[in-house]
Predict the structure.
Amino acid sequence: MIRVNNLCFSYTKKPFIENTNFEVESGEIFGFLGPSGAGKSTLQKILTGLITSYRGSVIVNGEEVRRHDNGFYENIGVDFEFPSLYEKLTARENLKFFASLYNKHRDIDKLLLSVGLINDADKKVSDFSKGMKSRLNFIKALLHDPQILFLDEPTSGLDPSSSRVMKDIILDEKTKGKTIILTTHNMYDATELCDRVAFIVDGKIRALDTPRSLIMGRGASKIAYTYLDNGREVRTEIPLCKTSEDETLSRLLRENRLLSIHSGEPTLNDIFVELTGRQLQ
Ligand SMILES: Nc1ncnc2c1ncn2[C@@H]1O[C@H](COP(=O)(O)OP(=O)(O)O)[C@@H](O)[C@H]1O
Ligand SMILES: [Mg+2]
């Protein structure tokens, strides 16, 4: 569905995105995961035809994006990082207006209902909270039932229950065969939703694989334990495979002095730090 070859782009004279290659299969949820300023939104802007001064080739749904025709957006839905809505219009008026730009559209009330906005449908967007605007902007991307969805930090700043609703809709779109590009710096969302993720730092893809392979292939499971030492709580982390050799742990177990002990596989954030030396947040 998407094929990127030798992509190069920079806002300045200094190279930023350089010789980047990746492909996204039809029906896949593909994540861009990286810290703020990594270039995730820039990549989305290139893939959606907002930035056309790139070098290399970017094919989306069979079209070279810099030469896209008017029909290009019939099959592309974009949820921008910052909501782009008409503040003086109501939610329903916004959706009706945007629907009129496309050949076909979904049922507006059903969409409003799906994100809990049906009772606010006739309120002006200027009276909406940030979270309500995010939800409206999200369904705006789904409005014309596009084959490819570009979602830039869709759950950012949402309360947990709105975020859950949105993630369930994203998974539902996948079951309908849609291809979804999801940008996030939330490792939990990436792990749960994405079939594959690309780790992005300073405009470069530093790793690309399924979350499971990244986690299982790179990181060792760890155990963490806590105990009191001269009245001060100490936390120690060791690889799970070193448990039997850890003398402190053996002594604490013998002396019944352990406060807590937990085991766990590494998170996508641990792997991100290991591979890039950077934190996600
Ligand atoms: N329009 C622009 N002009 C110049 N620099 C920009 C512009 N947009 C983004 N940048 C810079 O490009 C880098 C990547 O930004 P962005 O793609 O928004 O990152 P992310 O979405 O990963 O947080 C940042 O250093 C940002 O300051
Ligand atoms: Mg961004």
Q: What stands out?
A: The chain has two domains: 2-211, 220-264. Residues 205 and 239 are 28 Å apart (CA to CA). The chain has nine helices and 13 strands. Residues 40-41, 81, 152 surround magnesium ion (ligand 2) (CB under 6 Å).
